[in-house]
Amino acid sequence: MSAKTETYVPALGLPALTRFYDLVVRLTLPEFEQKKRLADQALRELPAGARVLDLGSGTGTLTLLLKQRAPGADVAGLDGDPEVIAVARAKAQRAGFELDLRQGLSWEPPFEEGSFDRVVSSLFFHHLRTEDKRRTLAKAHDLLRPGGELHVLDWGEARSALTRLAFLPVQVLDGFGPTRDNVRGRLLPLFEEAGFASVEETGRRNTLFGTLSLYRAVRPGSASPCTGRFE
Ligand SMILES: C[S@@+](CC[C@H](N)C(=O)[O-])C[C@H]1O[C@@H](n2cnc3c(N)ncnc32)[C@H](O)[C@@H]1O
């Protein structure tokens, strides 16, 4: 049987639960603290007029935060689920910010190769089976300009019996297949396999449902010293 899928796992595992996503995440995880850390890390030394993509953007909380913190950047979001995109659009409109929100699957993104300075993602990769992580990471790599950066916040390696046990409810909701790489600490090798360099875990935070890890990786290449733009 192929380990590739042609659809997406919704935000809380089941479509009927999607409308509760924001509330559940806000109440059960240090959501804003972690998304702010991710945004700070991703936006460091961002070139002027940069393009930033939020992969698996969901209800747009991170997408909006990125735009609020880097108003001069062109911020896009991609998600497979039209329901969460509608929520994200309404949020952006209420906040008075313009986001380029698209519906599509992460392994066939509707964007030009080499057109982003940052690809950022939170709580998304654990929705993908290994083969889907591989083809998504290959696309993320190609969407970045040389020297562009990938920044990921997601469930990380369980380093104790307690954090391993705490992660079980996430696995029941989102599936054991897609979540296994995360809890076994296999995201970093998958980033490397996709061609990323300087791959590192930059932080960890234990939560009620296991460990959240923050990662950074770079598409090899360099920024132009004259323009500050990645080429
Ligand atoms: C847990 S939610 C995270 C949403 C948001 N990034 C956040 O941090 O709140 C995961 C999101 O990934 C989307 N998703 C899952 N698989 C996908 C795929 N292959 N392509 C695009 N979106 C996908 C789901 O629709 C869902 O909105």
Strand fraction:
15-25%
Number of helical elements: 9
Q: Rg, please?
A: 17 Å
What's the helical proportion of residues? 25-40%
What is CATH's topology name?
A: Rossmann fold
Low-confidence stretches: 224-231
CATH architecture: 3-Layer(aba) Sandwich
Structural key phrases:
single chain, 231 residues, alpha/beta, Rossmann fold, 7 strands, 37% helix, globular, disordered C terminus, binds S-adenosylmethionine
Could you walk me through the main structural features you see in this protein, from its secondary elements to its overall organization?
It is built from 9 helices and 7 strands; from the N terminus they run ααβαβαββαβααααββ. Helix 4 (82-95) links the parallel strand 2 (74-79) and strand 3. The protein has 231 residues and is α/β, with parallel strands linked by helices. S-adenosylmethionine is lined by residues 8-11, 25, 56-58, 61-62, 79-81, 84, 105-106, 122-124, 127-128.
Briefly, what is this?
With 231 residues, the protein is α/β, with parallel strands linked by helices. It is 37% helix and 23% strand.
